[in-house]
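Let's practice the habit of predicting before peeking. Look at the sequence and jot down your guess about where helices and strands might fall. Then scroll down.
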Amino acid sequence: MNKERKKVVITGMGVLTPIGIGVEPFWQNLTGGKSGISRISLFDTSDMDVKIAGEVKNFDPLEYMDKTVARKNDRFSQFILAASEEAVSDSGLNFDKIDRNRTGVIIGSGIGGLQTLIDQHSVYLNKGPRRVSPFLIPMMIANMASGVVSIRYKLTGPNMCIVSACASANHSIGESFKYIERGEADVMLCGGAEAPIVCLGIAGFINMKALSLRNEPPEKASRPFDKERDGFVIGEGAATLILESEEHAVKREAKIYARLSGYGASADSYHIAAPDPSGKGAQLCMKNALIDAGLSTDDIDYINAHGTSTPVGDRSEVLAIKNLFKDRAGKLKISSNKSMMGHLLGAGGGAETIASVLTVKTGIIPPTINLENPEFDLDFVPEKSIKMDVRTALNNSFGFGGHNASLIITKYEKK
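Done guessing? Here is the structure:
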């Protein structure tokens, strides 16, 4: 027997990005068109062709956890603990007053604790296997971000990690949405975490020709949809959203930001790293999200694009939008947050979902900066944010391996 689908709302958010720690500074800098791309400070890049990234600046884990917890967690897990603390505080949730068995966590990560792996491999080579840390495995594995959040708050509901490269956070949010919609959970903490700015990771991305080589000036390197784009700029960070059934949120008189109303997923089934140049996978993903939400292309006002600044990726996404939205494509507002914060990989969709929620909530659309010579004839909100009533936003995330995930956020209106 089919159950009625429960409505799902967003009641809390927390974020760490290269353009700000915390939702308020993140949003101010995003709408202000401020770049967070700079020279890499986390390691020596003197022998590398790429010397820039989007680092989370001035992050002190001891502001969010004690020394013991910080020491036993990789940077990506430290990030998600900090983001989750902000989200929980923002939501006003008191876990002692709700059912912890119906409160779950799904946090995605594309890579996990890469710095920990590098550090402990060095220990192994220089000092032998007996000196390798017993915390190597729990610090390195990608699922630990979700694990440590559930442990901190003693949450015993659904708990897992989705690893789908740059679509990890959107898939995590989408699957959390479905748990609540099906009535299998009341509350879900979801999003993504990533700390990939390490020597080995950067070297790998350089050698696969994925990263921008525009080191000077750093803030001009990420330029989605621009003719002179030459690759993405890697970033780091974390984002946590708190989803609740509308019934649960209203009962506790929670602040509600917006409604999460649709989720679509698909596969390109084309290449391990390159998107299908036809855009068919992305098009199907967006279409599936619309079907899930019971909406049509006429209902979408704004698209928070994947928009990584790669030559093939941007072109593929534009083609997908044009093929799906047809004549309406030219009327849509579209922008890429990655022009300012870089590509946060498995955390990117989480930060961009928060941006989409705030766009729907405030009616402010963040710009696409560095769009000086547009290659395409769509409205990418160049250089400056605009004010506009946005009732429905679509957020895209696409990952290596052909993994696609789209979310639809709609304005919340009390009955």
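How did you do? Residues 70 and 128 are 25 Å apart (CA to CA).
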